[in-house]
Specification:
Blueprint (H helix, E strand, L loop, with lengths): L12 H7 L3 E2 L10 E2 L1 H20 L3 E2 L5 E3 H7 L1 H4 L8 E4 L10 E2 L4 E2 L19 E6 L4 H8 L11 E10 L15 E11 L4 H18 L6 E6 L11 H18 L3 E5 L8 E7 L5 E10 L2 H4 L4 E2 L5 E2 L2 E10 H12 L12 E5 L5 H13 L4 E3 L6 H10 L4 E5 L1 H6 L1 E6 L4 E6 H14 L5
Parallel strand pairs: 3-9, 5-7, 11-12, 18-19, 18-20
Antiparallel strand pairs: 1-2, 4-8, 5-8, 6-7, 9-10, 10-17, 11-13, 13-14, 14-17, 15-16, 20-21, 21-22
Length: 450
Amino acid sequence: MSAAMVPQESNNHRTLGRKLGLFTFSPEVGSGLPLWLPKGAILRDTLERFLRQEQLERGYLPVITPHIGKIELYKTSGHWYKYRESIFPPMVEPRSDAEERDHWTHSHDSCAAPSFEHALEAEDDEPDGIDVEAYILKPMNCPHHIHIYKSEMRSYRDLPLRLAEFGTVYRYEQSGALNGLLRTRDFTVDDSHIFVTPEEVEEEYINVIKLALFVFQALQLDDFAARLGLRDSASSKYIGSDEEWEKAQAVIMHAVEKLGIPYSIKKGEAGFYGPKLDFLFRDAPGRQWQLGTAQVDYNLPERFDLSYVGEDGQLHRPVMIHRANGGSMERLIAILLEHNGGAFPAWLAPVQVMFIPISDRHVAYAQGVAAQLRASGVRVEVDTRKERMNAKVRDAQEQKIPYMLVVGDKEVAEHAVSVRLRTNENLGAMPLTSFVERITNVINTKSRDL
């Protein structure tokens, strides 16, 4: 189901998130900070496990990094200077006075200890005579991954080195720019940084794009546009030489042309360190949002002085690929909601089966069969409310649950279930073993059909 097939308001992801019990927001917690409810947490966990498994099968290595980092890390990368307005204020800890260590207060520019409010200037080093350590909530994961790469000497035999993390980052978005899950102040990125030799970069980049396309297909997200973001030569925000930018741009263009992907070119949409290919999807009102991205970077390896030992025994500079298949998990789920109206593919649905016992005497059978389905990896609930069967079926359909299993005397006697779909199709009675085979096949193959 596409977003265009459902009225905009009913297909708004915030409306659907409330209706389906996936997430909420609280003004007491803060603007742009989603709270994931149990069904939403199951949805996210299922999506993350799918993405993680696909990455593991392709040689990605999981890592975990802190949610904060020293400000020097982001000065070296350049993020502090390029995106300071979107970075939460620094936290400054004095090293010289132990009594002041635990007394942090907020100032205009930072979360600073007493007498250290002016310890940080916009682009200057620490002032003379002030001994401080400054930390920020990480706005990106790449500097942390770079230091994992740097933690030991690398050989050309170690490359490509694919580091992957579902890393939560923080951006101080202006309140007027916040938009449900589409733009938040904390979000989790399906993030990876791949370190390759210059000879490997194009082949690796092609594999990165193939993985992104596979993910979109599995999520039934077919309608997207690919955009090649290049630097604007009139802007001063970009780093690196013309030669490095031309090499990176050539890698991306060769890759998309080999894969036969139509794409547009947009100047000014590159990262400050390199060009990128973005995958754009529309929300219910038709606005474009970036989900997946893949960027080629010759510049951060230079800034962080990365190296590997080549086949000739000499040190060489690796190339980085920055990659996120779905962008942020929050935005990906928002787009999924608005594209499918909350009717997730069966393998992804938070609740896949709802048992509907016709009367109280059928509850024990429903609960016993539900336990068997759970043992097969199916997410099941049993509706034991004192409601009429038709009302229970209607409620389950409104919750976009793929399968409703009605059980009465006949089903109990025959060890069967009566199957209805959220599409209102009635498949009638079938042996329990047949239904288990059907649903496990749908889940395992990530089928579009029920």
